[in-house]
Amino acid sequence: MSAAVFAENQPQSPGDDAGLLDEYSRTVTRVAEAATAAVVAIKVLRREGRGAGGGSGSGFAFTPDGLILTNSHVVHAAEGLHVSTARGEEMEADLLGEDPHTDTALIRVGHPMSTLALGSSHGLRVGQLVIAIGNPFGFDCTVTAGVVSALGRSLRAQSGRLIEDVIQTDAALNPGSSGGPLLDWRGQVIGMNTAIIASAQGICFAIGIGTVQRVALELLRHGRVRRASIGIAAQTVRVAQRLRRHFEIPQDSAARVISVASDGPAARAGLESGDLLVGFDDQVVGGVDDLHRLLIGSRIGVPLRVDLIRRGRRLRLEVAPVEAASR
To answer: Does the active-site annotation cover 222?
Structure first.
């Protein structure tokens, strides 16, 4: 065996990985140094109800005139908002709007701000480096790093609706990190940190920045997110095998109508309590979450087809959704 071959089979010394470690460290350090000035700590004053007395969280500025993104659960029911930066600047903030269904809120300070560039959550890959910045337990501008653990997760918001396309990461988050940015290696925001599983380690979630941007635009325009409603209460139920076979229903669950508002679009269209909704606007309905996903603002006032099973018959009705009441 030659000396060259023998050398190739020898274990590497710790120093051989120094270049890789330095590159990783340089990336995290560069992103943290560039992003920290745009990340803020948010202190919340609440006088009544849940969380009375106050709370705290994180946020990040994305426009130079002081627009800041954070979580809805951080600022909900706030009587006052106080924002501070890593440079020691302190200022009051106004709540422009919030959307509990996506746990997104938009606030503004009357002060020029350093900003973060909003990137894209499309094209992310499992294992990709991500960096989180926040203010856990009041420790300002704490930086953690990890990887994308999974993509396409769904997360139940406090309102009961599902938040779609959530990023799972093992970059450590703690109470107070909520609302902070999740960044890629370029320093662009790919998500907004929102939740942890308290009983687990390394399972943290961020809302994809595509969802956050869409909601922020609605909040800026209307102060709320416009959603459609057909005026029913429903629950997700299993579809009997005989019904699936007889009507060639591809899914194994659907939305059962529990009640119909007397003056709502569903009542005018002829929907009844007990109807089994299996399709909406030519898309499969596998339950209440699918209905919520399909009832977006662009469908307000637009006549849409509803496919349902009623007492052994398959029917197709037409319903025109109205704007859902704000909550």
So the answer is: no
